[in-house]
Design goal:
The complex is a heterodimer. Chain A contains 5 helices and 2 strands. Chain A is mainly alpha-helical. In chain A, helix 4 packs antiparallel against helix 5. Chain A is extended, with a radius of gyration of 18 Å. By secondary structure, chain B is mainly alpha-helical. Chain B contains 13 helices and no strands. The two termini of chain B are 13 Å apart. The chains are: A mainly alpha, B mainly alpha. Chains A and B meet through helix 1, helix 3, strand 1, strand 2 and helix 4 of A and helix 3, helix 4, helix 5, helix 6 and helix 7 of B.
């Protein structure tokens, strides 16, 4: 089942990448389409942040991950680089689990 | 982001200046190493979600777009179906189409080269390429960044996946917080705008309400509805 997901994802993601290089620019450069394209990653990624932080299956819980993500937020405000932000989140989550 | 590529017909800088091209190459490789290293967390998160090392490696080699890979692993790890996982991953890949549209003019590729180059149309290669003053530098930045990220990201994925399997229960190390933190870091630079914040807040609200009510993997897709105000609105402030 995981390989099926891998296959579907690679076909879809590659087709989207190639489409950009093939499509005549006029078609997708309408302001409305552009605006949606700019907002879509914001919506999807923040939804994934919320679900990854508070979701466990179909339940919502507040556990060590919330502390880890709060620490990641602080690291981002301090302009920490990407990898450090991720490491801080994992480290704080691990620490809170130890306590 | 200024749309430099589209204005580059008049090439303000000598396109053959070797010093500038060297600097572009160096910056691109630096970005590639910095970003590619986070493949470590992808490999670890993948194994934590129940994927094999081979499956993690295949995703990085063949899908090669970080946010989509993390999304797929996140949905599968939470018990979601293959279809829900693939749909969220592909939905996140839509932005690469728009990068491609902006890059096509500067890259000017055709045939087999275009088929191969499409694979490295990602956030970082697009960002580096579209902020260069000339077409020549855009091309160099695109290929140098894309290839550097590709090589480092794939090596790091394998190391992370093998490493996570050896250290016992990855949850002990907070690996499950790595994916949401990575998403937050990816999108944080975009959250300065008012419209982005509104979209983001709405998406979070939809997702959290949907978690208990819908199957795993569906809340992310529903959160895409948060772009509706922008899609339907008439204002030009986005």
């Amino acid at each position: 089942m995981i390989w099926l997901a891998v296959g579907l994802t690679l076909i879809g993601c590659y087709a989207l990448k190639l489409a950009g290089l093939l499509v005549p620019p006029r078609v997708l450069q309408r302001p409305r389409v552009r605006r949606v394209a700019e907002q879509l990653p914001v919506a999807l990624l923040l939804a994934l942040v919320a679900i990854g932080t508070f979701g466990t299956g179909r339940a919502l819980v507040i556990d060590a991950r919330a502390a880890g993500l709060a620490a990641a937020g602080v690291a981002l405000l301090l302009r920490a680089p990407f990898l450090l932000v991720v490491l801080v989140a994992a480290a704080v989550t691990a620490l809170v689990r130890l306590l | 982001m200024p749309d430099v590529v589209e204005d580059s017909d008049d090439d303000p800088v000598d396109p053959a200046d070797p010093d500038r091209l060297r600097k572009v190459r160096r910056d691109s490789v630096a970005v590639g190493v910095a970003v590619g290293t986070s493949g470590l967390t992808f490999g670890a998160a993948g194994v934590a979600a129940g994927l094999t090392v081979w499956q993690c490696a295949a995703l990085s080699l063949l899908v090669f777009t970080g946010a989509s890979q993390f999304a797929l692993v996140g949905v599968l790890g939470g018990g979601g179906s293959a279809l829900a996982g693939a749909l969220s991953a592909v939905a996140l890949g839509v932005r690469n189409t728009f990068y491609g549209i902006r890059l096509a003019d500067a890259l000017h590729l055709s045939g087999f080269r275009r088929l191969l180059s499409a694979q490295i149309v990602i956030d970082e290669s697009a960002a580096m390429a579209t902020t260069q003053p000339t077409r020549r530098e855009s091309r160099v930045a695109f290929f140098a960044t894309g290839l550097a990220v590709y090589v480092v990201w794939n090596l790091a994925t394998v190391v992370g996946a093998i490493g996570a399997g050896q250290i016992g229960d990855p949850m002990t190390f907070g690996v499950d917080a790595a994916a949401p933190a990575a998403f937050l870091a990816l999108i944080a630079p975009r959250l300065r705008g008012r419209v982005e914040r509104r979209t983001g807040a709405l998406a979070v609200a939809i997702a959290l309400v949907a978690v208990p009510l819908t199957p795993v993997g569906v809340p992310v897709l529903l959160a895409a509805l948060a772009v509706l105000p922008v899609a339907l609105g008439r204002r030009n402030d986005a």
